Amino acid sequence: MTIAVIAIQGNVEEHIHALKEAMQKQKLDEKVVPVKHKGIIPYCDGIVLPGGESTTLCRLMKHEGIDIEIIDAAKQNKPILATCAGLISLAKSGGKQAQKTKQHLLGIMDIEVDRNTFGRQGDSFEVPIHISFLNTPYNAVFIRAPKIVRVGKNVEVIARFGEDIVGAKQQNIIGLAFHPELTDDLRIHQYYLQLVQENTG
Ligand code: GLN
Q: Mean pLDDT, to the nearest integer, of 155-164?
């Protein structure tokens, strides 16, 4: 099994590290490949889309032709884990801010996001939240994070911070407003790997 980590910008190394650690813990022998160009994703079993800056991320994915490959992978129900800017790039709608910048969103997840809801870089914070598939709280790191303001009927809310939706799941796609790759808690990456295993199994 091979997992593609989109390596255009953002916390690429951190996701690769977390995936490798999670694999070791689960005694899995999968490959993780950083992907910058088209032609690799069709041969992968799952995709991880890190955070960063979603306008740039979307523009470069389109330029590289990776956008179409991710859309195709989603159609084939391949598991996708998208965090922060990654989550934004998968959304159907990015509200006014995305319209203003004519952001090229992939439109894979039936959600609307509101970018930069929780303030600027300096307002970053870490807070324990409940995630539906975990038994105990998870320390979520928020950095210029979006929130999800609308979910379609096939989308399940999996995490909230107060009233705000900060995690959603649509079939095999998990979108998170926070950064699981920046903590030592591997449970989200482990859960994701389990989805990949079940899907290829
Ligand atoms: N604020 C960024 C955006 O809108 C996302 C921040 C992040 O990925 N940490 O694209």
A: 97
